[in-house]
Amino acid sequence: MTFLAARPLAPAEPWSPLPHAGRREEEVISIGLLRHHTKNALQRVLCEVAKVRGLEETRQGHRVMQELERRVMLSVSLSDALFGITHAPLGMEDRLNSVCEATVELMSDPDQVLRLEVTVEGECPAALRMTVLRAAHEMVGNAVKHGLRARLLGHVRVRLASNAGATRLTVEDDGWGYAGARDGGEGLDLLRSLAALHGGTTTLQRIQVGTRAAMELPHGRGPLVAG
After folding, report:
1. What SS3 string covers the chain?
2. For residue 20, what pLDDT is reported?
3. pTM of this prediction?
């Protein structure tokens, strides 16, 4: 794949304390996102392994093993960025760029040429940043996995816009369109759950050329607590 090398991923910032019920719900969703992300990464690994027989005996096998190692390391870096608690985080724009770039590299085929465009407008509230980063990872992964599957050329556009009342994340691709389950499948269920924590909404629609996924999160609501 021809793609601008991803910058080092910024670690995830520590979660701020939440009411117990809300925090438990967020942790369950986080585990679901990690599971789904891991499944997608392993699917890519299996696809690469299935292409070659006798990996240890051929030059091509050596190349495939290098490619597998690269994807595994990308998966580890993404997991750290999305779920880890390590060093102080960089700014939101840098973190969003890093997560989106690494997701495109992880989910794409080596022969694909995919162009990624990320724009950030306004200041995303701190309480929404982890949700936005996790949603961006899922949306961009879906764009590459579904919309741009088997395409040599493609374009993914990510836009994060925050104003006085809400933050909106939009991911568009110029691919085939979503071809998963009728209700959107596991990934979109996780996105809906993330949005619901903040009283937000998600949409998925076919546009003139490609697909648009969006999440809108109102400001000032905070994670919703059951009961």
Report:
1. CECCCCCCCCCCCCCCCCCHHHHHHHHHHHHHHHHHHHHHHHHHHHHHHCCCCCHHHCHHHHHHHHHHHHHHHHHHHHHHHHHCCCCCCCCHHHHHHHHHHHHHHHHCCCCCEEEEEEEEECCCCHHHHHHHHHHHHHHHHHHHHHHCCCCCEEEEEEEEEECCCEEEEEEEECCCCCCCCCCCHHHHHHHHHHHHHCCCEEEEEEECCEEEEEEEEECCCCCCCCC
2. 44
3. 0.73
